[in-house]
Amino acid sequence: MIFTDAIFPIFLTLVFAAHWLLPAKFKEARLMVLLGASAIFYGWWDVRFLALIGVVIAIAWGAGLYAGDKSLDEKQRNRATMLGVTANLLILGVFKYFNFFADSFIDLLNLVGVNANPSTLKIILPVGVSFYIFQAISFIVDVRREELAVETRIRRVALYIAFFPQLVAGPIVRAAGFFPQMEKDRKLSSEIMLSGLRFFAIGWVYKAGFADNIAPFVDPVFGNPMVAGDSDVSNWTNLSLVGATFAFGAQIYFDFAGYSMMAIGVARWFGFFIPRNFDFPYLSTSIADFWRRWHISLSSWLRDYLYISLGGNRAGKLRTYVNLFATMLLGGLWHGAAWTFVIWGALHGAALAVHRLLLGNKKYLIGGVLGAAIGLVLTQVFVIMVWAPFRAENMGDVLQVWAAFTGLRDSSEAVKSLEWIVWLAPLAVILDGILGKSGFTKLSRSTIMRHPALFWGACGVFMGCALAFFPLQAAPFVYFQF
């Protein structure tokens, strides 16, 4: 089940009614309604997935009991933490990376002359496994760091890991921030309803109005970017490849930011507050700034649970650069089991290391408005070009796209080109950023408080426009594959 399915409004209405019709004193019963709804929501794809997430929950709960037990010595608590984290990472490795490493090993054997046939065993990738595994790890580590009290009730651990609004594609919620919200006495109010509606409506328009209408321009080009005359014939011009790459930068932003905002909105309707996942990343003036604005829940998770664990910037400059590179390399592999994602992560890791190096040499930096403008352009050009390995099927296609950017690709025989309207996609991202940072959003929030009827009317128009442009068949959210 996804937010844009026709069944979702019915599901949401029933869960909303069952949750809020229970008296406030039945706090645990309300939580159990949400847990049951989360099981239905996740099992809607494949009921077998429930067994896997059940194992993840049990491991996290058991490891948390020992990791937070102050009657044990430090070594025992650390061992419990390590076992819990390792077990979850092994689950992620088996389900997400078994096929990748098996196929890579077979390719390597064939490369050195050993005839190897691929195995017929293929493991299905459960939806959202990367996200809820990271949440399980967050729970174990937060308990060990004593940022969160030991939780003896497995049902609460289950709700944290399986909470349906952000279960399959984030945002990744920290355990230390979620569990205290379960203790609060939540009351339904007009403020909660309006706030949730605002997030959900904007997210819906991002997804239905923008992302799903950009995808038909992007998919055919990346489906076959080879030039005419190659083994896989394509007639796309260089400008088409460049335009499709810019359009994909807009598509993935509107798609993933849209899902995140819809998840935040749904969670608000049940009295839970999930932090924002995007902060207009295409306004970034450096690659470090980009990662403070893009997929914030993941970048901060990688920083706090991986980069700092590797040593962060505490072991000298060289080690800092290595830690930055390694963190993003693993972050790239987290996104997908393919060498293209490894390359994508490695490039971002190298860019972050170079940025840190330049910060240590102020003489190479240009300050003021000019420096910010140069930083903005260079950052966005880099980010857009590096979307190529994120979207392309293989490195051969990536090289075709990069060659198109540099003009080194011969497309003299190409006859197909994208429609000019595709260039409205990046313009929509720019407009979104300008409105977001101009104070327009603050104005809209104040308008909600003073004139709720005006807000409801605007939402109706907003959603009507989205529905008018909504494709006959909604595309799946991009991040569902991770």
TrEMBL record:
<feature type="transmembrane region" description="Helical">
    <location>
        <begin position="51"/>
        <end position="68"/>
    </location>
</feature>
<dbReference type="InterPro" id="IPR051085">
    <property type="entry name" value="MB_O-acyltransferase"/>
</dbReference>
<keyword id="KW-0016">Alginate biosynthesis</keyword>
<keyword id="KW-0472">Membrane</keyword>
<feature type="transmembrane region" description="Helical">
    <location>
        <begin position="120"/>
        <end position="141"/>
    </location>
</feature>
<protein>
    <recommendedName>
        <fullName>Probable alginate O-acetylase AlgI</fullName>
    </recommendedName>
</protein>
<dbReference type="GO" id="GO:0042121">
    <property type="term" value="P:alginic acid biosynthetic process"/>
</dbReference>
<dbReference type="Pfam" id="PF03062">
    <property type="entry name" value="MBOAT"/>
</dbReference>
<keyword id="KW-0808">Transferase</keyword>
<keyword id="KW-0812">Transmembrane</keyword>
<feature type="transmembrane region" description="Helical">
    <location>
        <begin position="80"/>
        <end position="100"/>
    </location>
</feature>
<dbReference type="GO" id="GO:0005886">
    <property type="term" value="C:plasma membrane"/>
</dbReference>
<dbReference type="GO" id="GO:0016746">
    <property type="term" value="F:acyltransferase activity"/>
</dbReference>
<feature type="transmembrane region" description="Helical">
    <location>
        <begin position="157"/>
        <end position="179"/>
    </location>
</feature>
<dbReference type="InterPro" id="IPR024194">
    <property type="entry name" value="Ac/AlaTfrase_AlgI/DltB"/>
</dbReference>
<feature type="transmembrane region" description="Helical">
    <location>
        <begin position="365"/>
        <end position="390"/>
    </location>
</feature>
<dbReference type="InterPro" id="IPR004299">
    <property type="entry name" value="MBOAT_fam"/>
</dbReference>
<keyword id="KW-1003">Cell membrane</keyword>
<comment type="similarity">
    <text>Belongs to the membrane-bound acyltransferase family.</text>
</comment>
<feature type="transmembrane region" description="Helical">
    <location>
        <begin position="6"/>
        <end position="22"/>
    </location>
</feature>
<keyword id="KW-1133">Transmembrane helix</keyword>
<keyword id="KW-0012">Acyltransferase</keyword>
<dbReference type="InterPro" id="IPR028362">
    <property type="entry name" value="AlgI"/>
</dbReference>
<feature type="transmembrane region" description="Helical">
    <location>
        <begin position="318"/>
        <end position="335"/>
    </location>
</feature>
<comment type="pathway">
    <text>Glycan biosynthesis; alginate biosynthesis.</text>
</comment>
<feature type="transmembrane region" description="Helical">
    <location>
        <begin position="452"/>
        <end position="472"/>
    </location>
</feature>
